[in-house]
Amino acid sequence: MDIKVVENVKTVEADILVINMFEGGKTSSDLVNKYAIEEDDFKGKFGETYLLQTYGKEIYRKVLVLGLGKKEEFNSNKLRVAVAKAVKKAKQMAAKKVAFALEGIDFDYSEQFTMGALIADYSFDKYKTDGIKDGVKEVFVQADSEVVKKAETVAAAMKFARNLSNEPAQFATPSELAEIACDLGLETKIYDREECEKMGMGAFLAVGRGSVQEPKFIHIKYAVDNPKKRIAIIGKGICFDSGGLDLKPASSMLTMKDDMSGAAAVLGIMSVLRELHPQVEVHGIIAACENMPGCKAYKPGDILTAKNGKTIEVDNTDAEGRLTLADALCYACELGVDEVIDLATLTGACMVALGTQASGIMGNDEELIKKLIDTANRSGERFWELPMWEEYFDSLKSDIADMKNTGSRWGGASTAGVFLKKFVKDVKWVHIDIAGTAFLEKPQKEFIAGGTGAGVRTMLKYILEA
What we know:
The protein is of the alpha/beta class. It contains 15 helices and 19 strands.
């Protein structure tokens, strides 16, 4: 889809002209007011639409009236969702050219308009034998062209991440992620099993032992002269999670290709940094492996030694993500960065607490947490802070090691956060649990079912504003 900025949308010959209407108000079109409001009592409630044929009397074939709800409750996030709804309607009607005549909106909608249109345009048809279906080819809007261009780049990064999350595990292997990382054109180092053993990454390597797929530790670096800040972003990279010897039920395994959504987000973010050229040094880190129940798989009761020398008793092999993140956090803290942020589909407990509407966030620096929550709100995502009190560590205490990898089922998301904190040293750190937001089993707001690219737009905005 091409988004084209024009001065007068209503002069564009389009299949559909989209006109907005606030609840209780009117539009600038006498035709719409006569038929939609006066004759058919269209109210303009948020998300409602009304389709009007023009029968050749206008240069656009149809008019789609888009309800925006009460004006005093309208905001940029609602605009993004409404635009996405209109684009999906246009796709259903096989429209190729859609023009948006947005009026009465008293904020710059350029960014969220672009995000809404491009998120809604997404589909994952790679494996359908009838090929990719045609969608909307051109969207016309009056907006800030520079803001639109930047938003298109962010949307491309989200698409990159969504595609990877939607790929089956037979494609998105640790080796494939390593190859993708190497193709980004950035300074990249791939560590194999032997090199990880030399670095003492006993927790990460244990998780990957049961798979025929070789583990890969990936480090991508975007560098600039005199950076304003140095940030490391870690993405959980479990390319498939069977649960290991503590095997998941079959129904819980169906979407476990998505357990590398954090890694997909990191790759998506890194893929556009050269185009956005922020004055920030960014390190993308992924400990990629599969958690499988092969004959060499790690076992409940095993004692693992992480990169920082701390020992971990394996209480459950299905609490594997935190083990891979433990070594990745140790590695990141040695890079001399100012901040470490990890994105991980980590706990079912976070999904129970927050559902699919928000990601959980916690860390050791309250100012950084608040900045990321604010950035998420402005980007169109939601982060909700969860507690990370030291008391949560009580259930992780082990009689024979420094800690266990899991404890009580109560407060599971916070317990996982306290576990991860044990591997963070001398750096500001935030953990973002995207377990509920990274992959949707049914459509939600602007998204279709599948990967969402959770965390990508927030992190890119945060990096650009640093």
